[in-house]
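Hey,

Quick one before I head out. I ran the complex with FE3-S4 cluster overnight. Inputs first:
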Amino acid sequence: MDNNLLVPEQEPDRQYYYMDEMKKLVLEKSREAGRTLTYNVTTFGCQMNAHDSEKLKGILEACGFEETGEEDGADFVLLNTCTIRENANTRLYGHLGQLKAIKRGRPDMVIALCGCMMQEPHVIEAIKNKYRHVDVVFGTFNIYKLAELLYKYYVNRERVIEVLETHAGAVEALPQKRKFGFKAGVNIMYGCNNFCTYCIVPYVRGRETSRTPEEIMNEVRLLVKSGVKEIMLLGQNVNSYGIAGGDIGGFTGMSFPELIKMVAEEPGVERLRFMTSHPKDLSDELIEVIRTHENICRHIHLPVQSGSNDVLKKMNRRYTKESYLALVDRIRKAVPDISLTTDIIVGFPGETEEDFLDTLDVVERVKYDQAFTFIYSKRTGTPAASYEDQVDEAVIKDRFDRLLDKVNTIAHREMKRFEGRVCDVLVEEKNRQEEGLVTGRTSENVTVHFKEEASLIGSTVKVLMKEAKGFYYMGERVD
Ligand code: SAH
Ligand code: SF4
Ligand code: F3S
């Protein structure tokens, strides 16, 4: 397809070569069209997925495309998929149906799919057979190759499908287009080794692999230099950073508490967050690092999933209700004001009313500031999918409503504890509903709206937390 002698074999040179080639191609097509070719990327999944989208956008811009907010009118449409629950898949197929109709009227539109759902063989089969209007497909392990795959497609005009099985050979030093100028995610590890029995992530994201501290620190320094104030360290289970072996790195010689301490002490890192923590590996050492570093945000997302020891065991979570509550106590003793949030699954196979009451009990005791509640979704290929005692839908619905009720009542009550306090708030955006207001977040991740100019976006200011309104605050700047 191209002069192979010219194509570098080494990465990332190879990808930069393809970005240049794509740029020539896109320029030529833009000239023909009398306008710059556009792209649109939709993210369906979690923070990790959203961060992947930033990398994909960076590559697309290096290829000469311009971003458009309108998917319908874009020349290149990319859907970055998620498969954590069944409804994520249903949504994607619905979306593809709509795109089919649009593409009929605009045959030049190029449609690409990537992300976690593409790592499932049955999905690839369905796309091959039923969704012929999809032009390019790749998975979670080769997003770095977007320019190469696109070049192949644009030159040959034949469908390109490339899904890999491991992270081996993946490259990092590629462009990124970040959503915000003042906050940024930094991957510290990829994949998951925990195999919770309901979860598909280990199958679609592979084994845990950690980036080296040098790589991470280089990225952090570059971000700080470019004006980033808040950094979020990303991984499915950040607490096992550096421990597990893997495709791109084995033992990095550093634990998560050591790493986060190093990042927190880097000059210019105003705020530091991390996501997600598995309760079984959250160490006292980490709690101590949080306690002694003011710039580590006072918020931990600590998914509990269930309060029942039987269910936790069947989920393979490897902690008990008691050990989870004891961990919460240790965290609260060290950092009393900390905000704790969680994820809960309702209707895991075999969940009894008694099990469910244990979950409600944990919610009452921990008093989460927010809890994301999910109805158990059967994922093909996971152990729990073949458990026989799946819970009746009506029972699940009833439990879900009761849980939501409890979670909201407690969260609203807990939110009030900040009333009358003055907090440091990082201004993030213009208020979407009301002109003249901006929206920011406290260290505890509480959202507050207050009167201020949009020019303040990206700055940290002191805000009086005047009135709690459910999950958010109305405030007033006081500095
Ligand atoms: N790595 C994170 C979670 C990533 S998935 C952790 O272990 O904490 C985000 C959340 O989706 C999970 O915490 C869980 O509550 C939910 N989830 C995962 N698989 C699910 C399934 N099959 N059905 C319903 N919810 C699920
Ligand atoms: Fe899924 Fe469990 Fe891994 Fe989280 S820790 S990604 S829930 S397998
Ligand atoms: Fe979804 Fe993949 Fe994240 S399945 S939740 S996008 S890791």
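The mean pLDDT is 94.

Talk tomorrow,
K.
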